[in-house]
Amino acid sequence: MIEKGMNVEEAMEAVNRAVAAPDVLLADFWKHERPGAPNLAFLYPPYSRSLQINLDMVSRNWEIESEFELGTRRRFAGRLVIAYKRLVRSMLRWYINPLVHQVRKFNMLVTRTLFDMNNNLDDLEERVAGLEKALTDDKEASGRQGEDGVEEEER
């Protein structure tokens, strides 16, 4: 089957050149600009309070209920409507409960993961603060040593 506008021999020749010189393919791959690192500004202080609030809301609402209170606004036929709803609910329970269980399990795992990420973030903030303090201490110490050396040369 021959397609219009495509030369099979040229295509095979290009494939053979690519197989013979894989470095050229890699150079072409790295030539294109890639997306930069993601913006993680939302992790830092002005938003950290909202992160705690969101984690609190997630931890309160991760568990969902498959059954809720049945009710109706009908005065006269209300009991009949509620009985019908109970019947339908009992007939569909076998179908709905496994899905609700899966959603609960997913919510639980996501909540745990979010709390683990928050704990890791707190640990990283402590490490960064320690490293920044050590860096400023080293800069101050090197500045003092440079001043001491200048004073000794003047004497």
Describe the structure.
It is a single chain. The chain is mainly α and 155 residues long. 75% of the residues lie in helices and 0% in strands. The chain is built from four helices and no strands. α3 (45-61) packs antiparallel against α4. The longest helix is centred in the C-terminal third of the chain and has 77 residues, at 78-154. 0% of the residues are buried. The mean pLDDT is 77.
Please compute the radius of gyration using only Cα atoms. Answer: 33 Å
In what range is the share of β-strand residues?
under 5%
- Total helix count? 4
Low-confidence stretches: none
Principal-axis shape equals: flat
Question: Layout of helices and strands, plus pairs?
Answer:
Elements: H1 8-20, H2 22-31, H3 45-61, H4 78-154
Helix pairs in contact: 3-4
Entry summary:
The protein has four helices and no strands. It has helices spanning 8-20, 22-31, 45-61, 78-154. α3 (45-61) packs antiparallel against α4 (78-154).
What would the keywords be for this entry?
4 helices, mainly alpha, about 160 residues, flat
